[in-house]
Amino acid sequence: MSNYVIILVASILAGATNAIAGGGTLITFPALVWVGVNPLSANITNTVALWTGSVTGAWGFKERLVRTKHLLKILIFPSLFGGILGAYLLMITPQKVFNFVVPFLVLFATIILALNDRINKFNLKEGEDIKKKSLVFVFILQFLTSLYGGYFAAGIGILMLATLGIAGITDIYTANGIKNVLSLFINITSGLVLLFSGKVEWPFAIILMIGFALGGYLGAKISQKFDSKKVKSFVILWGIILAIVFWIRGV
């Protein structure tokens, strides 16, 4: 099997995983390293290519985004700014420093997601106006998530699903739609910064874009055929797996 076929298959699986839960980079990152790309270039190449999966993933959930336009408008700014700043930090900061924190971030977000139903008892139901206090907290969380996403994208979907749960978005499919839209802004801004790094492996980046796009749409469509509780359980299980693997591998 050629290196390009390996990356295409990995990116389709990763695109589907990102559309449903997040963490698809855990598939493509080691695949790139496996075919000979150095870890830093693999990370940067992944980030530059991720935006296509966010586009098709969001499109697959488009019917569920109509009622959440207000929240989307509020969270676009922290997504853009956080993505830019995260990508800049990737350019200047030793990756080992941040790698130590990654498994704890993902595990924390997964625990919050698992407790969303209880957390939401203290928040407003979906469709109601969000209280200013909750909105400020969600705004800050989205900025921090975007900062993380601009630096290392794996697990960003789980972090955003947890944040959206706090905002009162209790339906996993609606949350997935919003997550994919916000991921698009994060990935585009961070990708634009990293374009000038000189470390993008373009042949692989193009293959990744195609695979992410196919997988993103397929994942969005297929996931909606399952019971929302089962999808949420999958997200939680995947988050725990991600945290353990990140801790063992040191990312």
From TrEMBL:
Origin superkingdom: Bacteria
Compartments where located: Cell membrane
Report how it sits in the membrane: Multi-pass membrane protein
Q: Does the keyword DNA damage apply?
A: no
- Can you quote a single GO CC term? plasma membrane
Spans through the membrane = 31-51, 71-91, 97-115, 135-151, 202-219, 231-248
Which UniProt keyword terms apply here?
Cell membrane, Membrane, Transmembrane, Transmembrane helix, Transport
Q: In which family does this protein belong, per the annotation?
A: Belongs to the 4-toluene sulfonate uptake permease (TSUP) (TC 2.A.102) family.
- Name of the protein: Probable membrane transporter protein
